[in-house]
Specification:
Layout lengths: L13 H15 L4 H17 L4 E5 L4 H14 L3 E7 L16 E7 L12 E7 L4 H11 L4 E6 L2 H6 L29 E2 L10 H11 L4 H13 L4 H18 L5 H21 L6 E6 H4 L25 E6 L2 H7 L6 H16 L34 H6 L9 H17 L6 H17 L7 H12 L10 H8 L15 H9 L13 E6 L7 H13 L5 E5 L10 E6 L5 H7 L6 H14 L5 H15 L2 H17 L6 H16 L7 H23 L5 H13 L1 H6 L4 H9 L6 H14 L4 H13 L7 H10 L8 H14 L2 H19 L3 H11 L32 H8 L1 H10 L6 H4 L5 H9 L1 H10 L8
Parallel strand pairs: 1-7, 2-5, 2-7, 4-6
Antiparallel strand pairs: 3-4, 3-8, 9-11, 10-11
Helix pairs in contact: 1-2, 2-8, 3-4, 3-12, 14-15, 14-17, 15-16, 16-17, 21-22, 21-23, 22-23, 22-24, 23-25, 24-26, 25-26, 25-28, 26-29, 29-31, 30-32, 31-33, 32-34
Length: about 950
């Protein structure tokens, strides 16, 4: 069968070149840049269409490109298709038949060999939709015998090799308007690879086109002036127009085009190598690429070129490949399209198929797709014909205006009102009529006879959305749903990596369809059905590794030593299939992935002791691996000894306390690494304590945590060989200036016995009496509150201090620093306030009538004035004291009475006897406890 020649005859576009040059001279007044650009565009079209290897220019997710591809494939029936797509993604294409489009081809790498570490993880995605020209070429090649599909673009490794290394790269463009649905993050932060990025990177040109086209954003301009005219155009017209647009945008693009040119050199080098190695006739091949790359100026362009290009080897990065779900909104968000643009393109594609009576190509066995026969009909032999200049006619004639389809517009208007009412809007039949008429009015104002979906969207927003959005979706989003919706793809079970399949298999006893994108409730009665325990363990593992909203426990918890009896889960794995697929790139089982992540976390250059202790806890909670916990614990000891700051001291204290309590409850007791961690931490924090007290960057919470570690674990540390003198010297060498740290130092000295309660009380009374110190009282109080952790005996004293402040200070002093006191306590000691409140509840009366008679414990003063007596009275009490002289002396010392029983004799302890006389009931009770008669003589 002979295929018609698609190459133009020589000088085919000479008349158009002269016409554009004359127009440029008339416009600018003299030959110049404008004439060179217009003439260059014609030269690019002539050069691309004259190439022996037929070039098929496309635009990404363009319905007109898809329609033209279907027509050309059925006409030409090529035996080799060269596709502009990363060459190392070729094995993924065979798995598309197990997926429901749209999906994205992904290359993923966690180890960034030869790349900046801040780029990790590396991810490249290439979205595929059913209406895209590349999918039609893929479906044709994979389901047609004796057809070879070759990917010729740079590898994913070269994508990052050629990427600029500067950190100030501009962020990707975002849509000008339109709300992006919640699924726009399906591609995450991956680098997007698209075929045919036809958007001008020249802001002034784009603004000019939007202004004179009377449209709001680029997607609408492209749909009106390119998609609609080319939807029914013949193949020659389509090719010439697409190459022209690609050449125009390429010539007007600002900035460096080195990366694009290197891609084109790479592609042509690969295609020439493949043609020569397999002895392929170029007439039987088709090269599918972006329209901008079809107008390439590189010297390697074309099969006749012999210009060399050295392809650099790949880096040592290990790449993983897979398929992830995609959606129309994800594609729009990643490539800077307007909201709903891809959905409208899909609707235009379906309409073009019906109007042209075309049968698209579909991979056999693909789920969610209609069964179609891809068998190509036999075409009659066509004589060779020369390509005529279709571009001149296309540029000179006005666009054909489609007549108004009243039935279609009326259906849209009625359906959007019905959909709006379901979403809380007060829409009526009058609004449907208003939308219908407004759509026609807007189309007329924009020089369109037939309202486009964008006109209909604007009319619906104007007529329905009055002052607020009553529900989750606005009217513009409802219009997108009406016109096709945000189609979301899904990767089939057979195309998932082994880890993802293993997860689905292990969760099968739950009896849920985990492929659904909706939340599903799972109830696990682990006492009645112990067989569900492995499912529970796996769910907690997935909870640890996947995004938080992928699995949400409603009932039940998992921690050190915890075992749930019943659990309830909201499971949304279908919605987070991408994250599950990416876990499959890291290992073959979920347990292996977590173990690898824990090892990497503690081995990272920025790892800390707190991170290592968290890894130990995760190893025990999720993996129940004592061996791994010991290995990570040894690393925690090394990290703690190497730290030079105490920023993580609160986290370290909380986690080591939890681990110590857990290990003490086990049969084996404390492991060796825990003992070494306590001894190393005791010496480490003693060494850094004076510096932490004096350092302004170290806050009171960190100092309080250090003291909590030293005092709370002192007994264990001393039993393991530590020296208590080291702590005393560290406290004596500390000289803080910040009020909160001063309070912490006083508390530490009180805990060590260097400061008595009376001395501490006197210092605080002097502080409250000094008007110069009053503004800093809240900070002192904050320090004392944080000192409750290392010195729990201070709780009553803190209650006393606050009570004295509120009871003695005048309102003129109290009210100004009261807000500061509250905010200070909330920010620095919020977790300790509940314990302080409980202590206050034990101190103060619990009933209102008892308030008037309440006398604070700290206000009771015992009189120590001795009353002279001739002789000490005798009796059982005296006999009791005489029988126990050591106890008598100790009691007298506690009461502040000097002298001893044996030294003073019976007449020398009159003060103690007088005290017993003042409290006869107490003496009788004490005598009764000691077995002595309660009567006094």
């Amino acid at each position: 069968m002979t295929v018609s020649d698609t190459r133009p005859a020589p000088n085919t576009f000479a008349a158009l070149r002269d016409q554009l040059t004359e127009a440029a001279v008339a416009f600018a007044g003299a030959p110049g840049a404008a004439g060179d650009i217009l003439a260059g565009i014609v030269d690019d079209v002539d050069r691309a269409l004259s190439e022996r290897l037929e070039i098929f220019p496309v635009c990404h997710h363009s319905p007109s490109s898809g329609l033209a591809m279907v027509r050309r494939l059925r006409e030409k029936q090529p035996s080799v298709i060269y596709l502009e797509l990363c060459e190392d993604m070729r094995p993924l294409l065979d798995e598309l038949r197990n997926c429901r489009l749209p999906v994205a081809l992904q290359a993923f790498a966690t180890d960034t060999a030869d790349f900046p570490p801040e780029w990790a993880p590396l991810s490249v995605v290439a979205p595929i939709t059913e209406s895209s020209a590349e999918y039609q070429a893929i479906a044709y090649a994979l389901d047609t015998p004796d057809v070879e599909l070759v990917l010729v673009d740079r590898s994913t490794d070269h994508v990052f090799q050629w990427a600029p290394k500067a950190d100030d790269a501009p962020p990707p463009e975002t849509p000008a308007d339109g709300e992006q649905p919640e699924d726009d993050g399906l591609h995450g932060a991956a680098v997007g690879i698209e075929i045919g990025d036809l958007r001008p990177r020249f802001a002034e040109l784009e603004e000019h086109l939007l202004h004179h086209g009377k449209v709001r954003h680029w997607s609408e301009w492209w749909d009106q002036y390119v998609e609609q005219p080319l939807a029914d155009a013949d193949y020659d017209t389509y090719r010439q127009v697409m190459v022209m647009i690609g050449s125009l945008f390429r010539r007007l693009r600002r900035g460096s085009t080195v990366e694009d040119e290197d891609r084109e050199r790479y592609i042509w080098t690969r295609m020439r190598e493949h043609l020569a190695a397999n002895d392929i006739d170029p007439a039987r091949a088709l090269y599918v690429c972006g329209a901008a790359h079809a107008a390439s100026p590189v010297e390697q362009f074309g099969l006749e070129s012999d210009a060399p290009f050295e392809i650099t080897p790949r880096s040592a990065t290990s790449w993983h490949y897979g398929l992830i779900p995609s959606s129309h909104s994800a594609i729009e968000a990643q490539f800077g399209l307007a909201g709903g643009a891809v959905s409208i393109a899909a609707a235009t594609w379906a309409k073009g198929l019906r109007r042209g009576k075309l049968q698209p190509f579909q991979l056999a066995g693909q789920p969610g797709a209609k069964k179609r026969a891809n068998k190509l009909p036999l075409l009659p032999t066509e004589p060779e014909t020369e390509v005529a200049d279709q571009l001149s006619g296309f540029l000179s004639r006005p666009p054909v205006l489609d007549p108004l389809d009243e039935a279609e517009l009326l259906e849209w208007s009625v359906d959007i009102v019905r959909l709006a009412r379901r979403n809380g809007y007060l829409a009526s039949t009058a609004d449907a009529i208003a939308i219908f008429e407004t759509s026609i009015l807007l189309a007329g104002l924009r020089n369109r006879a037939r309202p486009t979906p964008y006109d209909f969207q604007d009319a619906a927003v104007t007529c329905i959305e009055k002052d607020r959005v009553p529900g989750r979706r606005d009217v513009r989003r409802l219009c997108e749903i009406l016109l096709g919706g945000d189609r979301i793809g899904q990767v089939g079970y057979a195309a998932l990596p082994p880890l993802a399949r293993d997860v689905l298999d292990r969760l099968e006893p739950l009896g849920l369809d985990l492929s659904k994108r909706t939340l599903q409730r799972a109830l696990l009665d682990l006492k009645a059905n112990p067989d569900l325990r492995p499912c529970s363990d796996l769910l907690w593992l997935l909870r640890r590794l996947l995004p938080q909203d992928a699995l949400r426990p409603i009932m039940g918890s998992r921690g050190l030593g915890e075992t749930s009896i019943q659990e309830s889960w909201d499971i949304g794995l279908g919605k987070h299939q991408r994250s599950l697929v990416e876990l499959g790139y890291e290992g073959v089982s979920i347990e292996q992935v977590l173990e690898q992540r824990l090892r990497r976390a503690v081995a990272a250059p920025d790892a800390t002791a707190a991170v290592a202790l968290g890894a130990v806890e995760d190893a025990l909670v999720y993996l129940r691996s004592v061996r791994l916990a010991g290995e990570l614990g040894n690393r925690a000891v090394e990290l703690l000894a190497a730290e030079r700051t105490v920023d993580d001291a609160p986290v370290v204290l909380r986690r080591i306390r939890l681990l110590l309590n857990y290990f003490r409850s086990t049969e084996d007791g404390l492991p060796p690494w825990c003992e070494r961690f306590v001894t190393a931490g005791y010496a480490h924090y003693c060494t850094l304590l004076p510096t932490a007290f004096a350092d302004e960057e170290t806050g009171p919470p960190q100092v309080a945590a250090m003291l909590g570690f030293l005092f709370g674990m002192e007994n264990l540390a001393l039993s393991l060989g530590c020296d208590h003198t080291q702590l005393e010297l560290a406290v004596l060498q500390s000289h803080p200036e910040a009020p909160a740290k001063v309070a912490l130092l006083w508390a530490a000295r009180f805990q060590l016995g260097m400061l008595t309660m009376a001395q501490l009380r006197d210092r605080c009374d002097e502080m409250l009496a000094n008007p110069l110190v009053l503004p800093t009282v809240p900070q002192y109080v904050s320090g004392f509150v944080q000192a409750i952790d290392p010195a729990p005996a201070l709780k009553p004293f803190v209650v006393e201090l606050l009570s004295k402040a509120f009871g003695t200070l005048p309102d003129t002093v109290l009210l100004p620093w009261l807000p500061k006191l509250i905010t200070t306590l909330k920010d620095q000691a919020g977790d300790l306030i509940p314990g302080l409140v409980r202590e206050a509840g034990r101190t103060f009366p619990g009933a209102l009538p008892a308030v008037d008679a309440f006398e604070p414990p700290w206000s009771v003063e015992f009189s120590t004035v001795a009353t002279p007596m001739a002789a000490a009275p005798g009796g059982p009490v005296t006999e009791l004291l005489a029988a126990h002289p050591a106890a008598c002396d100790a009691l007298a010392g506690l009461l502040g009475i000097e002298g001893g029983w044996q030294e003073a004799g019976p007449a020398g302890n009159r003060e103690l006897t007088d005290l017993l006389d003042r409290f006869p009931a107490t003496a009788a009770a004490l005598a009764a406890q000691l077995g002595v008669s309660a009567a006094r003589s």
